[in-house]
Amino acid sequence: MRTVGSVHINNELLRRSNMANTYHQIYLQTVFAVKYRKAVIDKSWRSQLQGVIGNLISEANCKTIIVNGVEDHVHCFVGLRPVVSVSELMKTVKLNHQNISMTIH
Fold it and tell me: Which domain holds residue 71?
């Protein structure tokens, strides 16, 4: 038996016990804002843009919970997997949605 801080650990019990499955639940809210917050996201193609962003999040192996927004910004609520870094997800979504949004409108 060993002591870590004020906790006594029985090494034999640690060796014999099976570890339970790992559970994770990471949520992330992001906001993509239009440069200078200009109201350029038109209502006629806004839902198409939001769908594209949602698909890009899903393709990055994350769970798209909701994508919504108004004329000058888009909110994304995402279930993030621990194997995906926040910076990598944002880089992927931002680069790809900018390329696609140029062709939408």
Answer: 24-104
